[in-house]
Fold each of these.
Amino acid sequence: MSFIEINNLTKEYRASKESVLAINDVSAAINKNEFVAVMGPSGSGKSTFLTTVGGLSKPSNGTVKIDDINIFGLNVDTLANYRREYIGFIFQSFHLLKYLTVQENVLLPLVSSDLKKKEKIEKCHAILSKVGLETKAKRMVDELSGGEQQRVAIARALVNDPLILLADEPTGNLDSRTGESIMNLFKDLNAEGKCVIVVTHDNKIERYAQRSIYFLDGKIVN
Amino acid sequence: MNLYNIAIHSLKRKKSKTAFLIIGLVLAVSSVVTLITVSEIVNRSVATNLDEFGANIVISPKSDELSLNYGGLTVGGVSISNNQLKNEDILSIKKIKNKDNISIIAPKLLNTTNIEGKKSLVAGINVNEELKLKKWWKVIGKKSISKSEALVGLKIKEKLNIRLDQIIKINSREFTVVGIIEETGSQDDSMIFINLDEAQSVFNQEEKLSLIEVAALCYDCPIEEIVTQTSNQLPLADVTAIRQTIESKMTAIHSFEHFSFGLSMVILIISMLIVFTNVNASVSERTAEIGVFKAIGFTRNNITTIIIFEVFLSSLIAGVIGYVIGIYASRVIAPILSMNSSLNVEINIYTLIIATFLSLIIGVLSSLYPVYRANKLDPTVAFRSL
Ligand SMILES: Nc1ncnc2c1ncn2[C@@H]1O[C@H](COP(=O)(O)OP(=O)(O)O)[C@@H](O)[C@H]1O
Ligand SMILES: [Mg+2]
């Protein structure tokens, strides 16, 4: 049995008239220490796959089991807690809160944790130095470069020490050198034992992963 | 970093939106505070003036005969022999618990007598009190009468063909007619008025009274209480509240109250729409941010707390500012609208709390739907939009 088991996953977006089958009866299995690249053309269903696996949007059909837990069988709030503990999301456009500092952004997922303030700050500093931003903790995020902002987003995804990192086109907004350093960061994190799934349509990214899944029109092809 | 910090930072970031929300609520709260304060003051002043406009309590001797009816003009049946009211009863009235609510006490001694061969009704009155009570009297000639002077109603003037300055004989004592009361449409038109003391001595009824008319200020004391208290003081008298007068006065007062209440409701609904639009727009603008909250594992409670706390803070500030502005506006407006200029509007904690609470309720109630929408939001849609 694999760490992540996806069975017959289907997601249909219903607009007013037409409906779109974003993913169509997809099954896959991913192991705990894997680094998987999810590839495919634009509109093929990669993002939908990622947010569904991360428990962020409910599938129309099929199941996602992580650590043998059927995540869509959980109630809304348990699922939220589950996401907080197990999953770190990283997005193409970073999605940092512009009205907060670097440190405050990284501390966000710890808002309802029982840790003491001091422990939280220590944790935050440890993670910021891991992504190379230890000197920028007090900066407002929009004073940082794109690469630095993506590192803040990665730090935010890491602060709860999740088992799984889900990144949707994390280098899409970055120049290629910055993109490479971000991908190296993911590679290091995978080496430390995290399960990393990165969505991309950039072939250069593929070589960082151990394995690729190809999407076409909502289906996995080989 | 906690949920409240997030809300505060977010409010500070979108300064103009927050300012707009606060201004909207300040306008609502201050208008409602002004309306209610001013209407309360104007009511009080109108009520006081109305209460002194004619009697609202009539005290008459207890009688088995139902015919003793001053208001309905069955005065022909007034049986003087039954007269039990005395001058000293006036002092008793002034001793009741709510004596401060008693504004006018107008005693009367009524007698029928023959003047120039015609049966006429003569009333002994306390001139000052009577004139205060009957503010509508228009008198040709002199209003106030001294000893051996008389006021006459228009009907009796015509019936007896009296002119101003004419001398009439009442029980063979002479009185000069110094004033003619223009038509009032009441029984006063058929009466001759002389001083109470004179009447008591002319008709040989020293110290006696036929009835006492009272004007009580009943804005914040039910008239029934004053009636009961007076009855207890005067066990031998019938004390009756004049329903009709009271009810029409109350209608006048309440229609003003209803008006300001209605206007307040309209203002509140408009301000709810303002808050609703503002918070709803803010939720739409923040779809990505709300998506992030969901992605990093915030529960519905967490998200609700952030949004509601933002509205809560804005409403709290708006409530206090709105209240203070409302009170200052009332200080300017109330003296213009009320007839009593010595009113002062004070800031008091109790109403401040009510105003702030009102503001909070408007804010929170109108944010419920936007919050519901934020929680329902599909985060994947949020991320797609950027
Ligand atoms: N919220 C949505 N509503 C309607 N259609 C959507 C929505 N999200 C994605 N789609 C559609 O589903 C398909 C897959 O989209 P997506 O998962 O974003 O693909 P990719 O990430 O590979 O570009 C596309 O046709 C897209 O237009
Ligand atoms: Mg995509």
Amino acid sequence: MRIILAAAAVVMLAALAFAAPWLQFVLTLAIAKGFAALGVAVLLRAGLISIGHAMFFAASAYGAAFLARAGINDLGLLLILSVLVSALIGAIAGSFLVRYRAIFFAMLNLAVSMVFYALCAKLYGVTGGTDGLPVPIPAVFGIVFAEPVFKSILFYLSLTLMVLVGLAVHRYLDSPLGHALSAVHSNEIRLEYLGIPVWAVLLIAYTISAALAGLGGSIAGFAIGRVVPDFAFWTASGHLVLIAVLGGIGGVPGAFIGALFLELLHSAAVTVTDAWNMFVGITLIVVIMFMPQGIYGLFERKEAQSS
Amino acid sequence: MSRPILEAKNLRVAFNGVKAADGASIAIHDGEFLAIIGPNGSGKTTLLNICTGYIRPISGSVLLDGNDITRMSPRAIARRGVARAFQIPQLFSAQRVIDNMMLALAAKDGLWTVIRPLETAERRDEAKALLELVGLDGDTDRISSTLPEGHRKLLDIAVALALKPRLLLLDEPTSGVSALERFPLMEALMSALRQRRITALFVEHDMDVVARYASRVLVWNAGNIMAEGRPDEVFGNAQVRERVVGVA
Ligand SMILES: Nc1ncnc2c1ncn2[C@@H]1O[C@H](COP(=O)(O)OP(=O)(O)OP(=O)(O)O)[C@@H](O)[C@H]1O
Ligand SMILES: [Mg+2]
């Protein structure tokens, strides 16, 4: 039942973008943020709140810009390499961050990401300072398309990746390692006494979450055509947590539902009013008070009732 | 006698001047079912904490098969075949009962397979069999935080058994378990231990359980061993009867 719903949603998105091409940019960006929020949601399962994941989002987009400047000009290769860059940074940062819990974990992630932000903004010679760097349109299977065509390709690629990567993450969360991750939140003592190395479980999760944020970041970089330090600003990190909580961490679709919901709400709200933050705030209050499992939780509950 | 599986020598531990272990030594041999009894706060749980690497003694050492494990982590000691059930159950309370079991089974072999799900048919069967053994087969799909205290206790024991240990340390396995369920639980536990050749040490307050099942009894008092022997010998000791059995 849930699979049919998810498949229907994906088909609807594809159809929507086909019927209204002007929506493609918004939807691509929403999926990009969905990937990053999924990274945050993975860590939330262990009860760890990262307020710094925009760093990996930005690192990957910068990675794509640097690699493009170095002469790599293939979309697939650029995506893979830039995601590897963020995964590597994630593994390094994670190796000391996963020793911390609760507020210390949240604040240290914030701190590290702010150092990264400052470096991006100040190292003008390398990063272009606050102007950022261009992320040029790469070739797709050796063909360089005109911008509108490339943006369409990017959207459909993002949609495909959302399904494939989403399934892979679902597999991971359903595996013993994924269950061990949730168990960190419940009882670390028992995990230790089962002989399970908590730090390794968390480091793997952290690296995966950084890679997911990175995937979102390079898609966003290609969609916007530029990467700026603001990609890494702490409000962007906060936004990712917001998306994850709003969408719900009970399952992989939650992050994407949250991202699509917010992006579409944003697009709709800015045309009527500039108080869109108020809309978001009220929505979040409603979600936290009345549906603690997030928007995705509504679907899960339906499932439970029908079975 | 053969070399002991676990040996603790001259353990000393104090918390704010309170001596929880004061030069005590214990040894447990293959196939034993060793009971430790003693008044509240005498340091029984602390002994298990030391033997599993959760706390380090001020002095003294713990040997597993003759190897020093005093400074090892609980994880390393668990990996060497020592499992523990706790006085206060340590469960994954947000998870289902069956998931608690399957994660324990996976911890033993196959934690790192990200391709296969935690729940495989074999693992589920194995988990169910253990749950049946301790009498929790009716609770399989419940979230463990919703279990009554006695059942949480049983689950904690089943989880320890799932690790297929050589040595099992049980901290008051029957406390919180209703008087009616106590003996059936012990019977099931004993047959499982015998079948799987598990050596066990258990801290216990119920003297009827000790008298019936223990192969040897250690009386712990103020961080030291006050008496030791077969249940009938120990319970015949006037000092023990006055200080421990009477109190408990
Ligand atoms: N981590 C700790 N920090 C401080 N004091 C402790 C700690 N652990 C145990 N103690 C103290 O050490 C003494 C022995 O405690 P322990 O829990 O080992 O006793 P016990 O024999 O298991 O008692 P019970 O029968 O009540 O379970 C008690 O006085 C207790 O308060
Ligand atoms: Mg105790």
